[in-house]
Amino acid sequence: MGFGIGAINTLFLYTNFLTDQYYGLVAFLLSAANIMMPFMAFGVHNAIVKFYSTFRTKNSINSFLTLMLFLPLLFIIPSVFIGYFAYDSIVDWLSNENQIVENYIWHIFILAVAMAYFEIFFAWTKVQMQTVFGNLMKEIFHRVCIMFLLFAVYFDWLSVAQFINALVAVYVLRMGIMQLYAYSIRFPKLKFQKLENQFSILKYSSLMIIAGSVAMLILDIDKFMIGLMLPDIEQVAYYSVAIFIATVIAVPQRAMHQIMLPLTAKYLNEKDKVALEDLYKRSSITLLVVSGFIFLLIILNINQLYQILPEKFTGGLFVVLIVSLAKLYDNSLGNNNAILFNSDYYRMVLFFGVLLAIMAIVLNIVFIPVYGIEGSAFATFLAVFIYNTIKIIFVKRKFNMLPFTIGSAKIILALIVLSLAFYFWDFPFHPIINIILKSGLISLIYFMLIYKMNVSDDISLQIKKRLKL
């Protein structure tokens, strides 16, 4: 639902209600805030998930949660002073190619803090195995609010500058609501008592800043650098549309990841390797089936979809194709990230991640001036592909587990066959009717193949339930 609303916003409302320049500005501000967010959170949202289940007494739990609430201030407070005294230098750097950015520097900071504390309060609920409301707030709430704000711009109730201010306020409100919900599940009792493993927690949190930064860099560095390096900030808008279409593939992973994190941490803390390996393989095959289906719907309908969008937004076909492949590979890893970041080997993975983040930046610097947004997409694909391959090899060596099975090969074969069979074929109707009919046909054939090949007991059971077999 969240991505459905996001699709309406990204593909139709932003593209028609805002100018290309202001759409590019909004995408740039959000990308910059996402890159800053891991620093503002200080790795606390990861530390809550990893360490919460290790505490047994009320005093130790309260002391731990108190530490988690105040730890991000170690970065946020100095950032305020740096931002205040170095404001002119920061403005000159960020608005070097696009002067429109200079009036919105503090917006980036406020967005980053709001995003950081939202993730912290979401983690607060995850460890209580309560993820539904958090997912609602993370995926749906702000998108619905932005939809209303965009209509307010269309009806001239808001100026574009007021829209951007209101957008920041939406993220702050989302954080506040998540805080109230987290406290309703477990109200914090402030207790400033030193923990036995406090040094380990602080070290882990500090290293998770790097981990989060690597993840966010790979996700958002492309849009940020396009805004920095290309003179037309409109290019960020065109790229964002293509990226959003491809990012739909990540929806199942994002949803499943919320519950896989605490489960994986629990199995690792209990040293239950059998349950861990079972979760690794099952999450991989399930995500590959579902994300593979979304991949097919995107790739086989992309030409028709581009006929509906404004023509200037339709130049990102290569971006959609290459980033879709990267997202599909990412999903096929199952709970690989959860295993690595909650295990004792997270330091080595962070080392690889930093190298790959540097590589992503260098590749963007090389490819963006020559190939524009297509060069940025290719740089992102290379970084994600290499990073994921290293993570698979690392888990294999340290845990002797692979996410892939014979079923994985069957799914990939089905995806290749269906892609080749349907890409060059369309119904001779209006694009929307064509998309509906073609998607229905692909869905029927794909899930029949998945059911017949019996690649996953979980998926087969769900198909039986839906069809009442």
Automatic annotation (TrEMBL):
The chain crosses the membrane at residues 22-44, 64-84, 104-124, 140-157, 163-183, 204-230, 236-252, 285-306, 312-329, 349-371, 377-395, 402-425, 431-451. It comes from the Bacteria. One of its GO terms (cellular component) is plasma membrane. The keyword Amino-acid biosynthesis does not apply. Its main location: membrane. Keywords: Cell membrane, Membrane, Transmembrane, Transmembrane helix. It holds the Pfam family Polysacc_synt. It is found in: Cell membrane. It is a multi-pass membrane protein. PANTHER family: O-ANTIGEN TRANSPORTER-RELATED (PTHR30250:SF11), PST FAMILY PREDICTED COLANIC ACID TRANSPORTER (PTHR30250). This is Polysaccharide biosynthesis protein. It comes from Winogradskyella psychrotolerans RS-3.
